Structures are given as structure tokens and as C-alpha cells.
Amino acid sequence: MRRILPILCWPVLALSTCVLVVSVFGASVPKVAPAVIQGAIPQTPPVPVLVELFTSDACATCAAAGDVLRTLEQKQPIPGVEVIGIEMRMDAWGAQGFRDPFALRQMTNRQNEYLRLFKLDNLFTPQIVIGGQSQLEGPDMKQARDEIARAAKGQRATVDFSFQSASLATVKVDKLPSSAGESEIWMAVAESPQEERPTGPLSNPGPLGRTGIVRSLVMLGLAQPGEVTTYSMHLRFNPRWRREDVKYVVFVQERLSRKIWAATAIVP
User: Is 20's pLDDT higher than 60?
Assistant: First the structure.
């Protein structure tokens, strides 16, 4: 399979910062007026939650599930939470004569990992996986909001993604909790193309409602609790993609439990 996004990266591990705190006892302290806070009071940033939609245009309800995820991304209706959505086009229906130009075997393999995690019998679409820990079997907005809010609770890691140039980027993972096992750092390139309707005997004639479709998914490396992990990489952009339709999503996922500890999305 042709690799779309070659990446060269090298780790920088176990970075630390020391802060010196000085306390003064027994000294007289002059009376001063209370300080006036200038500017806006800093606010707590929203907690990112990754939502994966496994889909195919071969199913009648996939477009509706895409609409649910797109609405959550665009309106961000959950206080204190940032919904990051990506659509995974699985290729399991290809054997039945359906041809989807955006389907990838890697997405089918990833969905199989969740099938084992949730102890399900068969693959199906649409399937919405939230934070790697819960799943929905249909386009239920209320249930999706409840599960996303639940996934945002508890300890979290942080992941930062920045561009040094059009082709050079850096990923930094920090604050992975001590309770976390060995975790993988993944980068997805998702595109929201102006796509043509796929054709085939199972093609869904309904409207296309979708968020960014994953075109490339690459594991950058591993992160360990108590360490700051940094990767720098050179990116080669596929000329068939429209830059204005692309976003990069980086997330940290525990290898065994599949829990997603951190996520971020950036538009270049």
C-alpha cells in the first residue's frame, strides 16, 4: 500500500523544569494596596475529546451519524469540552461490490480493535467511538453528548502540535498520568472534500453529511507516564488533497485499554 505521508521523527524524552519557591518568615511586611488585575481573567481551556465515526456510504444511516458529529464539531454544545471529530471509512463492504474511493483497510483494522474491546460480534456501520472507551450504534445526539461529557472527566494528558514551516512540524506530549500504560502517539490527516457520490449496488442515495475523512493515519511513537515526549517530523503533502480542506489531528491512545488521554486538532 502506498504510504501517503512519509515521516522522519526523533524522540526527545524525560525533559523537566525546576521551579524555585522562596518563603520568608519573621520579616516585617509593608502594607500595600491590593493589586489590580489587568486584562481578562484567564479561563480554563476546554477538554478535547476525540470522536471517531466508522462509516461507509453503503449504509442508510451513516449520513445521519455524520450529521450528528458535524453538528457537535461546528456548534460545540457541551460546556468545557472541545469535540474533535474524524470519520473512518472502512472497506469491509468492498467484497459486496461497493467501491468507496476514501475507504482504507487500516480503518477496518482499527474498528476490529474496538470490536474486541467492546466484545461485539460483528463489524457494523455507523459506529461512533468516544474517547476510545464507549461506543454508540446509531446517530443519537443526546447519548453522544452524554458520553462525550463523561469522557471529558478525570485525569488528562496534553498534546501540542505546531508547524515550524509548511513541511516541518513538532508534536509534544506531556502530563501523561501515572495510571496510564504505554501509549501510542497517532497523527491523522483528515480531509473534508467536495466528493462525488460513490457508485455501486449498495450506494446510499441520501445526502452526504460528514466531518473530515481520514486520508492518512500514522503512529509517530510511544509516550510514557512521567516523561515529556517530543517528535519533530517532515511532512509531504499529497497534491491530490485540497489544503484548505485538511486538518491534522494528533492523539495519545493507551495501547491496551484504548483510552485516549489527549487530542488536538490544527488546520495548517
Answer: no
Q: Bridge partners of 249?
A: 188, 265
Contacts of 137 (CB under 8 A, 6+ apart): 124, 126, 127
Cβ atoms within 10 Å, residue 21: 4
Q: Which residues pair with 253 in a beta bridge?
A: 184, 260
pLDDT digits (tens, 9 = 90+) for 86-106: 999 988 766 566 677 788 899
Residue pair 68/143 in contact by the 8 Å Cβ criterion: no
Report how far residue 225's alpha carbon sits from residue 93's, in angstroms, rounded to the nearest whole number: 39
Nearest to 262 by CA among 103, 151, 145: 151
Name the nearest CA neighbour of 8 among 246, 236, 204, 268: 236
CB 191 within 8 A of CB 246: yes
Q: What angle do CA 87, 108, 65 make, to 5 degrees?
A: 35
Of residues 202 and 86, the one with the higher pLDDT is: 86
Per DSSP, the three-state class of 96 is helix
- What phi and psi values does residue 116 have, to the nearest 5 degrees? -70, -40
**CATH H-level, domain 9-14+48-266: superfamily:** Glutaredoxin (3.40.30.10)
Q: What is the residue extent of each domain of the chain?
A: 9-14+48-266
pTM of the predicted model over 0.90: no
User: Is the confidence at residue 14, as pLDDT, over 50?
Assistant: no
